[in-house]
Amino acid sequence: MNCVFADKVEAYRDNELSPEQRAAFARHLGQCADCAREIEAFDALSQRLRATPRAAMPDDLVERIIERHQERGERGLRRITGWMSAAAAGVLVASLVGWPRESPGIAAGSVEKVKNWELVATNPSAPIAAEPQNELVQVAQWMADGLMSER
Amino acid sequence: MGNDSDIDLLRRIGRGDAEAFARLVADHARYLYGVAHGLVGRGPDAEDLVQETFLAVLKSRFRGESSLRTWLVAILVRQAAMMRRTRSRRLSPLSLDGAAGSIEPVEPSHESATDARLDLASLLAGLSLEHRAVLMLREIEGLSYDQIAEALDLPRGTVESRLHRARRELRDRAGQSERMERP
Predict the structure, then answer these.
(1) Mean pLDDT of chain A
(2) Quick one: average pLDDT of B8-26?
(3) Which pLDDT tens digit goes with each residue over A30-72?
(4) Which of A2, A49, A93, B1 has the maximal Cβ count within 10 Å?
(5) Among A61, A68, A53, which residue's Cα sits nearest to residue B50?
């Protein structure tokens, strides 16, 4: 088809032209047999497509979709519950493993400090090389020195 | 455009409201099945496509820029494209263009073969998914170019050119079929 309006045929049929374009094409259509034939052919094709009965949906499809959605939701819930249980177990294990080290009452460093304090108090001349001086040891040293000087 | 009740319904679905999901399915499944049938043919493929579309609703976001139905069609068409890609990888190294990239051809119905009546399935069989989608949405569902562009996530110009090529191809096929049926 060699008409200059050929590229407007489908947009006209589909009602996609502006009001001005539509009016101009409608005027042209009255005078152009080619465009009129083209529109007729598209209309016929369209009618055949629309006349075909729509596929009937299986009766139970709605039910199956809803069931599958529910199953997926339950699976998701079970997965989340599983993750939460695993996370809780992890936290518990970490707490149990870490707890004795964190406890100030029996920490290894504290035991050393007490030992050093006793050593200094009872024998001020004994060496305490391994443990850096801390306040308790210094006080014990000072008290022992004081007692020794009073003798 | 999406209205408040659609948005509210989808919000409820997002919060896990099973009743809201059931309502969405009841309202739109039949329509979507019709579109799915046009795209991939009758049977398990169309059913799978509708199922996957509704499940994908839970992962998609409705912005209310189109109607709920157009948005659902958009999801369905994307799912159909995913289905096609999966099959292309699994079955054979098909090219990405036109008919070669389409889902398995839609089987012509008995009526069309025996009565020489061309029905939707037989006419659309063999067209690429891209062409089938624009034709279905325009000719059967009556969507505007802008709505199709929104549904397929394409520029409007691409919709127009694709629709033009699809119609030409369909006309050619219809013409060939008629010539073959003549004694």
Answers:
(1) 76
(2) 91
(3) 999 999 999 998 898 888 888 777 778 998 999 999 998 888 7
(4) A49
(5) A61
Give the pLDDT confidence of A69-79 residue by residue, as tens digits: 888 776 666 66
B63 pLDDT band (50/70/90 cuts)?
A: confident
Nearest-angstrom CA–CA distance, B81 and B162: 16
Nearest CA to B99 out of B169, B155, B36, B149 is that of B169
The DSSP code sequence of B145-168 is HHHHHHHHT--HHHHHHHHHHHHH
Pull the structure tokens for residue A8: 């407007």
What is the 3-class SS of chain A, one letter each residue? CCCCCHHHHHHHHCCCCCHHHHHHHHHHHCCCHHHHHHHHHHHHHHHHHHHCCCCCCCCCHHHHHHHHHHHHHHHHHHHHHHHHHHHHHHHHHHHHHHHHHHCCCCCHHHHHHHHHHHHHHHCCCCCCCCCCCCHHHHHHHHHHHHHHHHC
Hey, are the CB atoms on A66 and B138 less than 8 Å from each other?
Answer: no
Residue B14 has pLDDT above 80, yes or no: yes
Q: Could you say which residues from 30 to 89 on chain A have a Cβ atom under 8 Å away from some Cβ of chain B?
A: 41-42, 45-46, 48-50, 52-55, 57-58, 61-62, 64-66, 68-70, 72-73
C-alpha closest to that of B77 among B159, B9, B6: B159
Task: Determine the Cα angle at A17 with ends A12 and A22, to 5°.
Answer: 70
Q: What angle do CA B97, B100, B105 make, to 5 degrees?
A: 135
Q: Which two tokens stand for residue B106?
A: 């839609």
